[in-house]
């Protein structure tokens, strides 16, 4: 086997810096990084508009006309399955190589090649032996913390965006470990990879580190991180209106909470309450007011939101299991009718509706349209950042790197192609059958063998697909998302890729925990000033200086 | 002359005895009973709830809003599901292999090392003792351990879970202290009778040390059965996974990472019901619950011995 330390001795500095990368994430210490390169330790800023030269040239590929148009950045919706599919890639992309991958997954891991008909069918089409290494999505960061500093990485590595932002010095790691894809994909060089060229430019622009194109992005199909969902069936039955102001939200809580029946109004709705009070959230909680860079904790809006949250906790409107335990399953309480309104990711909607309607007749969860505390125009948080990034191991050689890119190109084929159907649903008759509506419906074998082994190494141009279990889902989702686009927060740092200083990254989580204590009444509201001072001294000011400099350098 | 009455004698005896040797008062006995009942209930109620939930239908779980305490129906579909999918039974076998082979190897190495280190004057006695003791103070760290394990070619092998932690310094010290407590005269007399070190260890020391070996064996076995983090690091193949990984996968299945932009397309499979999750918990618990009563007798004795002398 390859020695994972090969080459490390030749560059002690970058090795130590990589060690620091793991050590910082685990222990929150910056000592080791000091031995490495200085720049990343202090944070980096790339002005993306200056990096156009390294980005692939966008070539839209609309094989199927959408049934519901999404207002950019909302994805298009498809309610009808294409009657005929295009064979978009006729030549086998693989050259018979064995290619190892690592992707996260939140569920059971299926068998590998040779024992998995889904994998074998795709590998036969690819002309390569892709061997997936599927890892538990919740402990993915732990695994990364071991394999990145040890330089023991697979040929193709998927890293979720939210994990990257937790790793200080990531640009150093990227330089040392991953293939620079600029020379393969920049500008017109992307032409042989037609599917990759159809991915949105905004997604590609985030895949740049050290001013080089380092990854293939997995574009987001919806910009909103959070939604408030309510049990429409229960709320309508109780004759309560859905809220349009903060006061109405509180009144809703009062009316729906009934401890005698075991029903409470909310789970922890902190993020949504902040949004309702128009707290800024660019670059994870920053905003710029009158030319002054402010973190959310420093704003009056945040103080008001925190006060409101503390009141919800104090008046017992939040389910006691959520109050008592970090691990409380709010989804379960919501689906069992014990919580009337829940803050969750938009992704919770389809799965929960599809499953729970089988158990509870009339189960109907709907998102609350975005609103502001005073009833005026809401501020909606959102980000066009990609969900995942796919990196190719450095040093595989030109031929194998190109083979991998061709495979990623195959996987990125959009709806309307045979390739998409194979990756998304498997083999007809085995992994899916087509229902009366024409859409593929998964079989038990699909549930057993498919764990997005391929989907997570390359996304397609964003689409929202019909789901027979919840026929109105596409329409409901896109209408709700489209309505909020005009209220999306304007990011003062739009077009810049920022890697925050290690000192700032370190202080973030402890401060969030302290703020949580205040919201839950474990510390008085007046302690916010103390927490703020500790945050400023502990690294907050370093973060502010970094962001302020980025703005002034860009002349904004 | 003072007449000593039986009451006075009883009082004097009481004064000479320590308080804990007194026969307990009625209030004390009731208090003890209540406390022990509370402890037993604190252990049994969650277990009861896990078992009842694993045999409940999805409707009963939804109505209860989570864990079920009072059985409303009896549904074995969760068990049928996990055993037809196959990964739970495969993982149970893998964990059994790791536990049995790992525990045997660990106990063997620990006993041999402890015997050597319990004999002052044995070869490199002091440096070797320091070598083991130093691991109490300095941990190897995640990355160096990972590099060593992968460099030795142990990745994707169950040996990666066994070899790096085959000997635990704490267990070694407990066994060593126990061996040192065996009278030297006993061993000397065996030597006079012509016994070698191997005979002394197997025929004299080990038969006298059943309790400590049992308790250390149990420590190792529970450790191997519960191994999770190293399995996450070193095992990539689905067929190699151990029970704790499968349990974790069932527990977290369907929990999309909160707050990310576009989960609808992520294609999370429908999460297993709570009944399925709890059924996996029951399956994972069975071996531990089944083995524990047989070792419990030694366990108490071994722990007390270790605590007094170690």
From TrEMBL, chain A:
<dbReference type="InterPro" id="IPR006059">
    <property type="entry name" value="SBP"/>
</dbReference>
<dbReference type="InterPro" id="IPR050490">
    <property type="entry name" value="Bact_solute-bd_prot1"/>
</dbReference>
<protein>
    <submittedName>
        <fullName>Sugar ABC transporter substrate-binding protein</fullName>
    </submittedName>
</protein>
<dbReference type="Pfam" id="PF01547">
    <property type="entry name" value="SBP_bac_1"/>
</dbReference>
TrEMBL record, chain B:
<comment type="similarity">
    <text>Belongs to the binding-protein-dependent transport system permease family.</text>
</comment>
<keyword id="KW-0472">Membrane</keyword>
<keyword id="KW-1003">Cell membrane</keyword>
<feature type="transmembrane region" description="Helical">
    <location>
        <begin position="159"/>
        <end position="179"/>
    </location>
</feature>
<dbReference type="InterPro" id="IPR035906">
    <property type="entry name" value="MetI-like_sf"/>
</dbReference>
<dbReference type="Pfam" id="PF00528">
    <property type="entry name" value="BPD_transp_1"/>
</dbReference>
<feature type="domain" description="ABC transmembrane type-1">
    <location>
        <begin position="92"/>
        <end position="295"/>
    </location>
</feature>
<keyword id="KW-0813">Transport</keyword>
<keyword id="KW-0812">Transmembrane</keyword>
<feature type="transmembrane region" description="Helical">
    <location>
        <begin position="200"/>
        <end position="225"/>
    </location>
</feature>
<protein>
    <submittedName>
        <fullName>ABC transporter permease</fullName>
    </submittedName>
</protein>
<dbReference type="InterPro" id="IPR000515">
    <property type="entry name" value="MetI-like"/>
</dbReference>
<dbReference type="GO" id="GO:0055085">
    <property type="term" value="P:transmembrane transport"/>
</dbReference>
<keyword id="KW-1133">Transmembrane helix</keyword>
<feature type="transmembrane region" description="Helical">
    <location>
        <begin position="274"/>
        <end position="295"/>
    </location>
</feature>
<feature type="region of interest" description="Disordered">
    <location>
        <begin position="1"/>
        <end position="20"/>
    </location>
</feature>
<feature type="transmembrane region" description="Helical">
    <location>
        <begin position="91"/>
        <end position="116"/>
    </location>
</feature>
<dbReference type="GO" id="GO:0005886">
    <property type="term" value="C:plasma membrane"/>
</dbReference>
<feature type="transmembrane region" description="Helical">
    <location>
        <begin position="128"/>
        <end position="147"/>
    </location>
</feature>
């Amino acid at each position: 086997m390859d020695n994972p330390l090969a080459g490390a001795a030749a560059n002690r500095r970058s090795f130590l810096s990589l060690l620091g990368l793991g050590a910082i994430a685990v222990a929150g210490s910056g000592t080791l990084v000091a031995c490495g390169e200085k720049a990343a330790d202090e944070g980096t800023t790339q002005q993306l508009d200056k990096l156009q030269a390294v980005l692939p040239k966008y070539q839209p590929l609309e094989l199927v006309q959408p049934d519901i148009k999404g207002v950019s950045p909302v994805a298009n919706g498809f309610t009808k399955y294409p009657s005929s599919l295009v064979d978009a890639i006729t030549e086998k992309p693989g050259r018979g190589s064995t290619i190892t991958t690592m992707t996260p997954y939140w569920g059971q891991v299926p068998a590998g090649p040779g024992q998995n008909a889904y994998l074998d069918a795709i590998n036969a089409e690819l002309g390569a032996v892709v061997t997936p290494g599927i890892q538990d999505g919740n402990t993915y960061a732990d695994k990364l913390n071991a394999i990145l500093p040890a330089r023991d990485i697979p040929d193709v590595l998927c890293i979720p965006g939210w994990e990257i932002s937790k790793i200080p010095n990531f640009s150093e790691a990227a330089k040392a470990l991953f293939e620079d894809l600029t020379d393969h994909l920049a500008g017109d060089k992307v032409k042989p990879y037609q599917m990759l060229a159809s991915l949105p430019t905004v997604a590609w622009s985030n895949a740049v580190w050290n001013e080089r194109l380092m990854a293939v992005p997995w574009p987001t199909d919806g910009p909103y991180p959070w939604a408030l969902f309510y049990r429409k069936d229960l709320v309508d039955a109780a004759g309560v209106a859905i809220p349009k102001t903060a006061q109405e939200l509180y009144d809703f809580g009062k009316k729906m909470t009934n401890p005698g029946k075991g029903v409470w109004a909310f789970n922890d709705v902190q993020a949504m309450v902040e949004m309702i009070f128009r707290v800024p959230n660019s670059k994870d909680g920053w905003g710029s007011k009158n030319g002054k860079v402010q973190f959310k904790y420093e704003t009056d809006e945040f103080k008001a939101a925190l006060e409101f949250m503390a009141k919800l906790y104090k008046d017992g409107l939040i389910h006691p299991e959520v109050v008592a335990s970090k691990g409380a399953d709010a989804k379960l309480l919501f689906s069992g009718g014990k919580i009337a309104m829940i803050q969750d990711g938009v992704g919770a909607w389809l799965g929960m509706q599809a499953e729970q309607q089988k158990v509870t007749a009339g189960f109907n969860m709907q998102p609350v349209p975005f609103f502001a505390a005073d009833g005026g125009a809401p501020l909606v948080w959102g980000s066009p950042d990609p969900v995942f990034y796919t990196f190719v191991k450095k040093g595989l050689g030109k031929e194998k790197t190109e083979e991998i890119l061709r495979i990623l190109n195959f996987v990125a084929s959009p709806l309307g192609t045979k390739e998409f159907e194979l990756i998304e649903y498997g083999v007809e008759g085995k992994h899916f059958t087509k229902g009366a509506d024409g859409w593929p419906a998964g079989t038990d074998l699909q549930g057993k063998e498919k764990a997005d082994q391929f989907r997570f190494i390359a996304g397609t141009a964003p689409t929202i697909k019909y789901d027979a279990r919840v026929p109105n889902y596409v329409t409901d989702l896109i209408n709700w998302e489209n309505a909020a686009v005009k209220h999306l927060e304007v990011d003062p740092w739009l077009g810049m890729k920022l890697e925050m200083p290690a000192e700032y990254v370190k202080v973030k989580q402890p401060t969030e925990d302290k703020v949580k204590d205040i919201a839950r009444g474990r510390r008085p509201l007046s302690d916010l000033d103390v927490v703020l001072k500790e945050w400023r001294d502990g690294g907050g000011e370093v973060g502010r200086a970094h962001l302020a400099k980025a703005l002034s350098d860009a002349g904004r | 002359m003072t007449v000593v009455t039986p009451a006075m004698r009883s009082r004097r005896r009481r004064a000479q005895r320590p308080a804990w040797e007194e026969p307990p008062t009625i209030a004390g006995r009731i208090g003890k009973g209540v406390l022990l009942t509370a402890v037993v209930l604190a252990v049994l109620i969650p277990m009861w709830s896990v078992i009842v939930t694993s045999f409940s239908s999805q409707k009963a779980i939804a109505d209860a809003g989570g864990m079920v305490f009072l059985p409303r129906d009896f549904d074995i579909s969760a068990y049928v599901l996990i055993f037809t999918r196959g990964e739970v039974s495969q993982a149970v076998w893998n964990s059994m292999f790791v536990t049995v082979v790992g525990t045997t190897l660990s106990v063997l190495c620990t006993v041999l090392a402890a015997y050597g280190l319990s004999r002052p004057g044995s070869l490199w006695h002091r440096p070797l003792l320091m070598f083991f003791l130093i691991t109490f103070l300095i941990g190897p760290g995640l990355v160096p351990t990972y590099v060593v394990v992968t460099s030795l070619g142990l990745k994707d092998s169950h040996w990666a879970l066994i070899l790096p932690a085959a000997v635990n310094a704490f267990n070694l010290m407990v066994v060593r202290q126990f061996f040192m407590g065996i009278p030297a005269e006993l061993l000397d007399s065996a030597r006079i009778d012509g016994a070698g070190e191997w005979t002394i260890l197997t025929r004299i020391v080990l038969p006298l040390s059943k309790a400590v070996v049992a308790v250390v064996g149990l420590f190792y076995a529970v450790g191997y059965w519960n191994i999770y983090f190293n399995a996450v690091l070193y095992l990539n193949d689905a067929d190699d996974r151990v029970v704790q990984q499968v349990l974790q996968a069932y527990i977290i299945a369907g929990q999309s990472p909160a707050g990310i932009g576009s989960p609808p397309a992520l294609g999370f499979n429908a999460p297993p019901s709570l009944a399925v999750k709890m059924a996996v918990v029951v399956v994972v618990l069975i071996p531990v619950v089944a083995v524990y009563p047989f070792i419990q007798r030694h366990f108490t004795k071994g722990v007390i011995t270790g605590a007094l002398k170690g």
